[in-house]
Design a protein that fits this description.
Blueprint lengths: L3 E3 L20 H5 L13 H4 L17 H5 L25 E6 L19 H4 L7 E8 L12 E8 L4 H4 L14 E3 L6 H9 L2 E9 L5 E3 L6 E3 L4 E5 L18 E3 L4 E6 L5 E5 L11 E2 L2 E2 L3 H4 L20 H4 L24 E4 L9 E3 L11 E2 L7 E7 L3 E3 L1 E9 L13 E8 L4 E6 L16 H6 L1 H8 L4 E2 L1 E6 L6 E5 L23 E7 L8 E9 L23 E6 L5 E5 L18 E5 L6 E6 L5 E7 L5 E7 L7 H5 L17 E7 L8
Parallel strand pairs: 9-16
Antiparallel strand pairs: 1-5, 2-34, 3-4, 4-6, 6-7, 6-8, 9-10, 11-12, 12-15, 13-14, 15-16, 17-18, 18-20, 19-23, 20-21, 21-22, 22-27, 24-25, 25-26, 26-27, 28-29, 29-30, 30-31, 32-33, 33-34
This protein binds MU-OXO-diiron and calcium ion (3 copies).
Length: about 675
């Protein structure tokens, strides 16, 4: 037997396949003809809307959090910018210290197996996963994220994907492998390798505490938990029980196994964690054909389910165990409950996890829609008002959505069932700076039974197709969203879209072949997050000094240039943190070389000023950001260090990064940032 390394998927790990080939025009194609000039709306939100909207008092917008109450009494950008970097290290401003915590492989549960690249699949299920992404710190006491313990809590994080060549260590050493390549022998994959890859995905829940010397350490705790690509889950909301999610595993369509490609996250007003399934489609294959052509149902074709092999070839596991063959969605006959043709339909959702209950079964909340969810962010919860959650679909020409609950929020009784009844909307950005939320519901906005949108379940499983139908605005890859705690304005990163042609630009996505990305923001009518109208503008066009503009119309400078905004988060004082993800294939090359390694910046939303706070090592992206309630400890994640390693350099045993250990293999990790004087981060 010979080992034949096979590159199963040649797309960059962070790249999203182009799936929106729908006929509905980019908004730009519609407005181009009647736009007398190619203008862009920049920083005009407050001025333009002065007559329409009344700015709320700062504290009113988020229910008077402790942090927001302090805003105005502290410098928003009180640190010296760090320069762009092309060094294999973390850099933070003078007066700050960054330390590594919870790298991939850190033991947290069970028999606490020590990290080694020789760890088995079972070991991996007791250790921190690979490729850290969205993350939240839940104080061990206190529900409000801005209140409660700042020295002890549950760190909960996503693990977006895996890099088998580093995951399997010696087994893959010396072979010419790119980042997504796996070894296939005689058409089969080793079961334990597949199990390890699946178990390195998902979510980690780990208790951490600050020690007497100021460092943070993992604590043994019965709440420490790994949720993986195999963990049993409930399906809730309108899709529960639908014929579209019935499988051999769950003939009544109420359950599925695992969560995959968990990118960013959300935190509910009732203090649970939401993990978002982003580029899950490529993990599945469906070999169905009609004649000699692939014949995938729309709920798979529109999302990019593979017609050849799954991303890592899990369906090729040698044992052909049920937990692995389910990644092959090819129909076997007439009975959908005899196979896994519907398995991909049980992915693409937002999943709720209660980190404080280790026995809780994660729940897929289907009313938030099915797409490449980047993350989810809530409007401020107010007693007696609906709960509102925003989520972007991160692929080129996809959409921004929001969910508005049918039932009102009540702090005393709120729970995840609030997410099971309501209305899912998709955004349309008009060229005059106004916008509309278009309901995705049977009988509304042209969604009819004749087009296959007769039920909510059909609409939700086919969220993208429904959004195409109602004429939503195709965006430049929506990534994270964040809500300003002082104003209620909603910000979203639009990371890039190199395929947008000149005749496809619109005023919300105004750059053709956008390499650098921008940040859009909007304000809901009457400052009501449940409103169906809004007004928008552009907060910043990212780019080099010659091709960038901040909110005030100024070019970015050496202290603030960045590209491909991805992570986005407001701290309680209203400081906006921006993280970048220049893809592995583009990093440190061509027009993107000037930005150096991926980075994190802070912005003052009032003045538009932006300043670089952190730069990371080679090949990674910076993602995930949260502070303790006192804002004196910040946690960020470094994902996929060394991912830019070429197949030749990998074969030669020379990954471009050995961060953070300086030996062995590069490892994604959390980084803990503190100010040496014990002060608030950013001041
Ligand atoms: Fe997983 Fe869109 O970044
Ligand atoms: Ca990425
Ligand atoms: Ca991301
Ligand atoms: Ca990204």
């Amino acid at each position: 037997m010979t080992d034949t390394p096979v590159v199963l998927h040649d797309a960059g790990e962070g790249d999203e396949p182009l799936c929106n080939t729908s006929a509905n025009a980019s908004f730009g194609e519609i407005v181009e003809a009647r736009l007398s000039r190619r203008g862009t709306l920049l920083g005009g939100l407050t001025a333009a809307l002065g007559a329409m909207f009344v700015r709320p008092a700062p504290a009113a917008a988020q229910g008077a959090t402790q942090g927001a109450a302090q805003a105005g009494s502290e410098p928003m950008l009180g640190f010296t910018a760090v320069p762009t970097s092309a060094a294999d290290r973390i850099a933070v401003p003078q007066g700050y210290t960054a330390r590594v915590l919870t790298p991939w492989g850190t033991p947290i549960t069970g028999s606490l197996p020590q990290f080694s690249t020789r760890n088995s699949g079972a070991d991996q299920a007791m250790q921190i996963g690979q490729h850290h992404d969205g993350m939240h710190f839940f104080p061990i006491e206190g529900r409000d994220p801005y209140q409660g313990s700042s020295t002890d809590g549950l760190l909960v994080m996503n693990h977006e994907y895996v890099e088998p060549r580093f995951l399997h260590g010696a087994r893959y050493a010396g072979q010419k492998l790119s980042g997504s390549a796996v070894v296939v022998t005689d058409g089969k994959r080793d079961d334990d390798e597949v199990a390890k890859e699946i178990n390195a995905h998902g979510v980690s829940v780990v208790r951490i505490a600050r020690q007497a010397d100021g460092t943070w350490a993992v604590q043994r705790d019965q709440r420490n938990r790994r949720i993986t690509g195999q963990t049993p889950m409930e399906i809730a909301g309108p899709v529960r029980g639908s014929a579209l999610v019935r499988t051999k595993y769950s003939p009544d369509g109420t359950r599925t196994r695992g969560t995959l490609n968990n990118c960013a996250h959300g935190v509910t007003p009732w203090n649970t964690y939401l993990t978002c399934e982003e580029n899950w489609a490529g993990y599945f294959r469906n070999g169905a054909t009609s004649g000699d052509r692939p014949a995938l149902p729309r709920e798979q074709a529109r999302y990019g389910v593979s017609t050849r092999r799954g991303r890592y070839g899990w369906e090729l596991a040698a044992s052909a165990a049920d937990e692995f063959v389910r990644f092959d969605a090819t129909p076997s006959g007439a009975d959908a409950t005899a196979d896994y043709r519907n398995e991909p339909n049980t992915f693409g959702w937002v999943v709720e996890v209660d980190p404080f209950d280790p026995e809780s079964v994660p729940v897929k909340r289907t009313h938030l829609g099915r797409f490449a969810h980047e993350g989810v962010v809530f409007g401020p919860a107010r007693e007696g008002r609906p709960v509102v959650a925003y989520s972007g679909d991160d692929a080129m020409f996809e959409y921004i959505y929001k969910f508005v609950s049918a039932r009102p929020y009540s702090a005393a009784t709120a729970n995840g069932s609030l997410l099971d009844e309501g209305t899912l909307y998709v955004a349309k950005f008009n060229d005059d700076g106004s916008g509309e939320w278009l309901a995705l519901a049977p009988g509304q906005n042209g969604l009819t039974e004749a087009d296959g949108f007769g039920t909510l379940a059909e609409i939700l499983v086919n969220t993208r197709a429904a959004a195409d139908k109602v004429g939503a605005t195709k965006m430049d890859r929506p990534e994270w969203g964040a809500v300003d705690p002082r104003t209620g304005e909603v910000y979203f990163t639009l990371t890039n879209n190199t395929r947008r042609a000149e005749n496809q630009v619109d005023r919300a996505n105004p750059r053709a072949k956008s390499q650098f990305g921008h940040i859009i923001r909007w304000r809901e009518a009457n400052d009501d997050h449940a409103a169906t109208r809004f007004s928008w503008d552009i907060f910043v066009f990212a780019g080099p000094e010659r091709d960038s503009r901040d909110k005030a119309g100024r070019a970015l400078t050496a202290d603030s240039i960045f590209a491909c905004p991805d992570g986005l988060w407001f701290d309680a004082a209203g400081r906006l943190w921006i993280q970048t993800d220049i893809g592995e294939r583009e990093q440190n090359k061509g027009d993107l070389e000037v930005f150096g390694n991926n980075q994190m910046l802070a912005a003052d939303p009032t003045t538009g000023e932006i300043r670089r706070f952190l730069t990371g090592p080679f090949g990674q992206e910076i993602t995930g950001v949260v502070t303790t309630p006192d804002r004196r400890t910040m946690f960020i994640n470094v994902q996929h260090p060394g991912a830019t390693t070429s197949a030749d350099d990998f074969a030669a045993g020379k990954p471009v990064s050995l961060w953070p250990d300086g030996e062995g293999v590069p490892r994604s990790a959390t980084v803990v940032i503190t100010k040496d004087d014990g002060g608030i981060i950013g001041t």
